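quick q for whoever's on today - can somebody do inverse folding on this one?? i tried earlier but teh output was garbage lol. tokens:
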């Protein structure tokens, strides 16, 4: 469907760029909870070189302050789940990982109250935990912790809507043998700015699945990160994004294989349409010297629907040990496959409908990873609405 582009090459014009960097996992400052430990970015830093800083509304330079009503957070959870609002002195905060850039540190030093969702050990939830984050205008800083006890099982839906300027940190802490699926939906209004770091700490023999879905917003930058607290951990990171004219959507991932005999699989797919639509995908996998027996793969695919859109796709793989089970990555960006369109049209399907079928098929495997009928139906409706705008 999509044309393969060798890593390190550039397509004609500004349609897409795929490149590889061996320094993408090297940030400009060490991880820290203190915003003062991070220099104000100027756009030349590795972690900021694709981000239009002027559209961050001051989140990156300290000029942003909490204003207006910010966001409203509503949690709906089964009876077995504990939901708490805590202060920054709660010892459960920060265990999954430290902020790795200035905006994440700004969020950590600026939030007033954090939300902690706890699933007790051995509890297997029959209904998902739903966390609705609704923007009500203004600027806000947030912090969320989702913790699963040993051998617990849960599905969490983190749903962002409305308009706001939001910087937030999200932590997922999985006990040994736990299984967590998280669906994070960024369905913001047109003016929203959302910058978030998601840290997952995966326990021994635990399984973590993340599905990140991004449609709305003026600028959305999500930074999922995974580390392992014991052997046998599994992580699956899936993503789906549809970038419209003028939107900047950026997904930066790091899977840190710091423990032996763990696995990871990363698959992100995006579609773009409209003038100045810009999608950025950075996929970093680090296999440390101690992480023998690692098995990992990452892939990014992008479908460009119109002229004027741009993709930056950068897969990175750093390996510090030769004793691994497997490691690989791939990136491809292209337009519609003319042969597929011809095949469908030759069977009497109009071109407009044929294009829709190709896009639906492109996203189908990722939508099915969600596993919640109502969320899947909503996302299919969003894809249909986006396609209506492109024909």
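ok took a stab at it. sequence:
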């Amino acid at each position: 469907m999509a044309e393969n582009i060798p890593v390190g090459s550039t397509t004609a014009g500004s349609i897409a760029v795929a490149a590889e960097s061996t320094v993408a996992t090297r940030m400009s400052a060490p991880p820290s909870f203190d915003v003062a430990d991070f220099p104000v970015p100027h756009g030349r830093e590795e972690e900021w070189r694709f981000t239009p800083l002027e559209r961050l509304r001051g989140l990156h330079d300290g000029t942003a302050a909490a204003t207006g009503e910010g966001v409203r957070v509503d949690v709906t959870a089964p009876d077995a789940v504990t939901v708490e609002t805590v202060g920054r002195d709660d010892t459960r905060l920060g265990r999954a990982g430290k902020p790795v850039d200035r905006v994440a540190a700004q969020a950590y030093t600026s939030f007033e109250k954090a939300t902690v969702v706890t699933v007790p050990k051995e509890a297997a939830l029959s209904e998902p935990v739903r966390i609705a984050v609704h923007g009500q205008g203004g600027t806000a800083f947030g912090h969320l912790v989702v913790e699963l006890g040993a051998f617990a099982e849960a599905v969490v839906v983190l749903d962002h809507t409305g308009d706001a300027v939001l910087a937030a940190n999200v932590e997922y802490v999985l006990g040994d043998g736990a299984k967590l699926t998280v669906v994070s939906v960024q369905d913001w209004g047109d003016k929203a700015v959302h910058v978030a770091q998601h840290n997952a700490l995966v326990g021994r023999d635990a399984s973590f699945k993340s599905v990140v879905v991004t449609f709305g917003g003026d600028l959305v930058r999500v930074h999922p990160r995974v580390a392992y607290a014991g052997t046998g951990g599994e992580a699956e990171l899936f993503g789906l994004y549809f970038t419209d004219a003028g939107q900047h959507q950026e997904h930066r991932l790091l899977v840190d294989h710091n423990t032996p005999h763990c696995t990871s699989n990363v698959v992100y797919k995006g579609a773009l349409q409209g003038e100045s639509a810009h999608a950025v995908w950075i996929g970093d996998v680090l296999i440390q010297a101690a992480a023998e027996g690692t098995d990992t793969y990452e892939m990014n695919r992008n479908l460009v629907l119109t002229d004027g859109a741009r993709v930056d796709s950068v897969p990175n793989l750093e390996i510090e040990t030769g004793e691994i089970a497997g490691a690989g990555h791939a990136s491809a960006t292209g337009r519609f496959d003319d042969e597929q369109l011809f095949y469908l049209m030759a069977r009497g399907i109009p071109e407009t409908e044929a294009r829709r079928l190709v896009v639906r098929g492109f996203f189908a495997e990722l939508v099915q990873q969600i596993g919640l009928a109502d969320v899947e139906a909503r996302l299919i409706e969003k894809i249909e609405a986006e396609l209506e705008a492109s024909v």
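fwiw The CA atoms of residues 118 and 346 lie 55 Å apart. also Confidence is low (pLDDT under 50) at residues 1-24. so keep that in mind when u check it
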